[in-house]
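R.M. (postdoc): so does anyone remember the format we settled on? I'll just put the structure tokens first.
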């Protein structure tokens, strides 16, 4: 019996390609955040300094990842994500793009602060042309805290980046066992480990290093995107600002952005991205002067409908569809690298 089994094993190893036994190569690109944070005591789950622990220490703290893939680290940034500007974002996208083009890289994990994790993930989703898995991961507690969530998040993120089934799914966010699509994931709670959600649900879950899939995104991303980091020059994007909607709005908030050089303003309006009657003249004037107006909503769920309460066709405004204001900001900035036509920008909002 034993001999038969050995013969079978030898026969199998002769017929299966070497790649069936080889582990995939995954690069962990570290950018800082709480996942690289450290507190004074194990009971400090919320009081700590972000962006302290270097990438090799992060990887070595979870040696189990080497069972899933050949893992190596790159320290791209060491920063709390609220301090990321266009410069860091573009630089990171270029580094990820270069890695994705390397034949010996099968998947990429980006460790990131959770504050603007959704922005970075969405940006990479739009500008990096690849079908290799790119997974953005963070944690809500520093590694020094009791029940730190970073180690398991990192383990699951590496498993996802190494998985054949994760190819071509777009940039993903892995948090708290859930796999989310970069375009619709958002941080919804600032103190719990289940901090991320998508109004359209998760793509799937990772359980004990195995991804289970339940849906896929129907929007354009990665190889199917018309934006490409390789054709974006310099270290800034066209300036786009956000004005948060409430009662008692000030025209000066919008005018200050125009003065600062904004080429578009995201109006994070109430309800259906509504604009107060006394603000409409300011926004129509700005549009006539070449500042694009994009109506998003401060309401976390739903989608902004065109020409409903507000006549967008008449005013030449764009609606952000279901993208939240911070993601609308990035898509508008990328759109402005290609066009100044509001109708074209609207098309992009419906396609991405
Ligand atoms: N402020 C931190 C950051 O975004 C929060 C976190 O990572 O959870 O870098």
């Amino acid at each position: 019996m034993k001999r038969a089994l050995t013969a079978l094993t030898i026969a199998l190893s002769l017929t299966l390609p070497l790649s069936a036994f080889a582990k995939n190569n995954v690069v962990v690109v570290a950018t800082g955040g709480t996942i690289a944070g450290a507190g004074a005591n194990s009971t400090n789950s919320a009081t700590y300094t972000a962006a302290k622990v270097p990438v090799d220490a992060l990887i070595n703290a979870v040696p189990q990842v080497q069972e899933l893939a050949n893992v190596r680290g790159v320290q791209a940034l060491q920063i709390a994500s609220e301090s990321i500007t266009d410069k860091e974002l573009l630089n990171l996208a270029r580094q990820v793009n270069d890695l994705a083009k390397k034949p010996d890289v099968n998947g990429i994990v980006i460790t990131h602060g959770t504050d603007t994790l959704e922005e970075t993930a969405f940006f990479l989703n739009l500008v990096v042309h690849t079908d290799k898995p790119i997974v953005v991961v963070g944690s809500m507690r520093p590694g020094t805290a009791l029940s730190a969530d970073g180690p398991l998040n990192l383990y699951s993120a590496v498993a996802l980046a190494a998985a054949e089934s994760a190819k071509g799914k777009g940039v993903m966010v892995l948090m708290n066992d859930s796999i989310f699509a970069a375009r619709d994931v958002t941080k919804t709670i600032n103190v719990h480990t289940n901090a991320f959600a998508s109004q359209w649900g998760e793509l799937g879950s990772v359980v004990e290093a195995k991804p289970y899939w339940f849906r896929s995104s129907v929007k354009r991303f990665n190889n199917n995107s018309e934006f490409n980091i390789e054709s974006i020059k310099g270290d800034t994007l066209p300036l786009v600002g956000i004005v948060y909607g409430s009662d008692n709005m000030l025209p000066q908030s919008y005018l200050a952005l125009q003065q600062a050089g904004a080429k578009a303003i995201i109006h994070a309006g109430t309800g259906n991205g509504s604009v107060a009657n006394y603000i409409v003249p300011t926004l129509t004037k700005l549009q006539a002067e070449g500042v694009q107006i994009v109506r998003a909503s401060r309401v976390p769920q739903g989608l902004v409908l065109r020409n409903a309460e507000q006549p967008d066709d008449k005013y030449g405004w764009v609606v952000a569809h279901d993208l939240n204001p911070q993601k609308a900001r990035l898509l508008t900035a990328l759109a402005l690298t290609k066009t100044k036509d509001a109708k074209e920008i609207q098309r992009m909002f419906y396609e991405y």
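R.M.: ...and that's the designed sequence above, right after the tokens. Also worth knowing: The chain has a mean pLDDT of 95. Residues 33-34, 50, 80-82, 113-115, 138, 140 surround aspartic acid (CB under 6 Å).
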